[in-house]
Amino acid sequence: MSHFRYINKKLFAEKVSVSTIIKKNKTPFYLYSEKQLKENYSNFIKNFKNVNPLICFATKANTNLAILRTLGKLGAGADVVSGGELLKAIKAGIKPNKIVFSGVGKTEEELRLAIKKKILLINIESESEAVLINKIAKKHNQKVSVGFRLNPDVDAKTHKKISTGKAENKFGLSIANFSIFYKNIKKFNNLKTNALSVHIGSQILNDAPYKKTLNILSKVIHDLKIKPKYIDLGGGFGVSYNKKDKLINLKNYSKLVLKFKKKLNCNIIFEPGRSLVADIGVLVAKIQYIKKSHKKDFVILDAGMNDFMRPALYDARHEIIPVTKTKIKAKRSLEFVGPICESTCKFTKYIKFQKISENDFVVITNTGAYGSSLSSNYNTKPLIAEVLVNKNSFKIIKKKQNLLDLLKS
Asked: Does residue 345 carry a catalytic annotation?
């Protein structure tokens, strides 16, 4: 979050004071730095320069059209997991030949859409899905470019709710089942098997699981004599949500991938999401009330789990910082919570924090990934606004949902 910093004890987003933005926008709202987004993408490219991969942004991490447009202009493609995400990516200007479609439960309608748009790859995750795609393609007299997502049974050592590469997870085909299925692939005349795909989880902080996955892929490709045009290695690269998180060394991983690529003579696809957008955003909130309890004070924000679900869903901890700094310390420990009528509508606790008062403002950090995209209308709350800063100016890139419109549905 290098582009969110304090100047004279006031928090700035790039060259704009967050207090100035608050005066123009009612809290809560998401606030993004365009410069941080561009730097993140550039740094990712640099780390994998020799690999020269196609970068398909994991759209589910942040579906804002302005964010997608910026990434598209930088050269990114998109990894989508629904028909809606597919249409959003195309609306944002991302070319269909840079889009891959993943997900275990694609509907027939979604598959028809993907085939019609002639996207780069549909990543198949079950035998039944292969049968359905072949049936649709045959009816329209087309050959559809597909990949097969494998489940390598690799433990990514991440949170159990974001692990996707273990045998117990629902994603992909097991190596054994894929091996049996692939031996009969010629029966599927309307499928072009152009890729193998893996994605073992999210918020991964070291390269050991990736290295193990590459070795498994190499063996499968050798044993089945596959000559894939693409290998989709997924994403999952972790970010630093707190000072204890030690990030994966992408340059070291890049060397492993380059060796793998040369051995197989294939093109590489990555699907980064969180690592590109987590630190571009913060959630700006107002302190509604401070309520004293026996051992701590509850700091009740106007933002809740409906706006930002990660703490409730994953027990995730995001640092909270004040919009205006002071050296005065709070006398009691604080727990930051939201207004939603659920005990899980809480964010984090601090034993030591600065002195704060009702009507002050704070920001929840690193909320650019899985913030807005996981938000909901729970408790009949409108979806909040999203604001983008570019140097010394800012603009609304998604308006706050109108409560009257919400009441109509």
From this structure: no
Please give the DSSP secondary-structure letter assigned to residue 185. G
Classify domain 34-277 at the CATH topology level: TIM Barrel (3.20.20)
Handedness of CA 267, 273, 275, 280 (dihedral sign): positive
Per-residue buried b or exposed e for 281-303, using 16+ beta carbons within 10 Å of the residue's own CB: bbbbbbbbebeeeeeebebbbbb
C-beta of residue 178 within 8 angstroms of C-beta of residue 148: yes
Q: Where are the domains of the chain?
A: 4-32+279-408, 34-277
> What CATH fold (topology level) applies to the domain 4-32+279-408?
Lyase, Ornithine Decarboxylase; Chain A, domain 1 (2.40.37)
Residue 167 has pLDDT above 70, yes or no: no
Catalytic residue among 56, 266, 341, 345: 341
Q: What is the pLDDT of residues 95-121, one digit of tens each?
A: 999 999 999 999 999 999 999 999 999
Cβ partners under 8 Å of residue 125, min gap 6: 102, 103, 104, 149, 171, 172, 173
**pLDDT classification of 236: cutoffs 50, 70, 90:** confident
3-state secondary structure of 321: strand
Q: Determine if the pTM surpasses 0.70.
A: yes
Placement of tokens 């106007």 in the chain: 302
